[in-house]
Amino acid sequence: MKMSYNTRSGRTPNGKLDDPRQLPNSASEFYPIHRRSLNIQYENVYKIEDILNIPSVQYDNSLLIKNLTRDELIIIGHRYDILNTLNDDEKTLALYLHKVLQNDPYTTGVRENLTDSFVNYLLGEIRFNKYPFLLNLQSDYSFYICSTKVTAKIDFSVEKDNNILCFDEDKHLHGVSLATEYGESQISAEMLACAYTNHDKADSSTREQDQMIFAMRVIGSRFTLYKSFINKDYIQSLVEGFPQEDMNIIRFPPNTGNTRHGYDFADEQQRPLVLDLLVRLREYMRNM
Q: pLDDT band at residue 1, thresholds of 50, 70 and 90?
C-alpha cells in the first residue's frame, strides 16, 4: 500500500523513505520527501551560459509582440485599437497570451488548456515541431526502482533521433505551492523518467549511456529551464533500490527575487529573455 506524504512511519531519520514501495506511482504525486529519497537536488545558476553554453540566436521579431505590456495584453481582447497595430502572427500570439493572463494561476482557478494552447503555439513558432524535432503531446514515460514503476505524463515532449531531449511541463494553481516545491518535486521525477526511457529503450542512440535531460516549467506565462546530467550508474542502480549516487538539476533563472517562478513572457522586459532561452535551447538540442 502506498504511503501518503504526511505519513511519518516508514521515514528514515534524514527525512527519506526507507522502502521504494512507498513511492507514488505517478510523478504528479511527488513531494519533497520522494525527491530526497531519490537523492535529487536542485541548484541555481545565474548566467544563461551556465546552462546553455551557446551564443545568442536570432528569432522572429514578431514574437516580441511589439513590446506590449502585461496591462495591454490583459485588455487586448476587447481593445481593437491595440490589436490592430499588430500583424496577424503578433495578433495570434497576443490573443493566446491574453487568455492565459485572464486566468492567471496566481489569482484564479486556471483552465489548463489555455496555457497548453499558448505553449503549443509558441513552441511551434520557435520550430520545435520541425525536423529534426518531433513535438509530442501527452506522452507517457516511466522509470522503475526495484519493482515499483513511476509514470510521468508529459504535456509536451520534444524528441530527436529517438531520444527524449526536452519536455515542457506546464504547472498551474495546484502546483504553485511550497508543499510541492512549486512543481519541482514532480519535475524531478519527470526528468528521471525521460532519462530512464532514453537509457532503457532498444532504439535509443544513448541506450545504456549517461543522459542529458532538459525540462521547462511554465506557470501561467512564467518560464524556468532545468538541465540535468544523469550518470548511467545512477540509473542502473535503481534496480537495487534507492540510489547511493546523486542526481543534480540546475535551474535558470534562479528562484530568487522577481524570477522566483521564472522569466515572465507577459513582461515586455523579460519577454526577450524567454525567447533567448528557448531559441538557444533549440540550437543546443539541434547540435547535440
A: very low
Mean pLDDT of 15-43: 96
Task: Let me know if residue 216 belongs to a domain.
Answer: yes
* pLDDT tens-place string over residues 74-114: 999 999 999 999 999 999 999 999 999 987 655 544 455 77
Cell of 124: 511551434
The per-residue DSSP string of the chain comes to -PPPTT--TTB-TTS-BS-GGGS-SBGGG--HHHHHHTTEEEEE--SGGGT--S------GGGGGGG--HHHHHHGGG-HHHHTTS-HHHHHHHHHHHHHHHT-TTTS---HHHHHHHHHHHHHHTTTTSTT-EEEEEEEEEEEETTEEEEEEEEEEEEETTEEEEEEEEE-GGG-SGGGTTTHHHHHHHHHHHHHHHHH-TT-TTTTS-EEEEEEEEETTEEEEEEEEE-HHHHHHGGGSS-SS-EEEEEES-SSGGGTT-EETTSTTTHHHHHHHHHHHHHHHHT-
Q: Domain range spanning residue 142?
A: 20-55+126-286
Amino acid 161: pLDDT: 86
Decide: residue 108, CB within 10 A, 0-12 exposed, 13-18 middle, 19+ buried: exposed
Average confidence (pLDDT) over 17-33:
96
234 in any annotated domain = yes
- Distance between CA atoms of 55 and 63, rounded to whole angstroms? 19
When divided into structural domains, the chain yields a total of 1
- How far apart (Å, rounded) are the C-alpha atoms in residues 155 and 193? 14
Taking the model in full, what pTM does it have?
Answer: 0.91
pLDDT tens, residue by residue, 246-281: 999 999 999 999 999 999 999 999 999 999 999 999
Q: Identify whether 2 is part of a domain.
A: no
**Cross-strand partners of 170:** 218
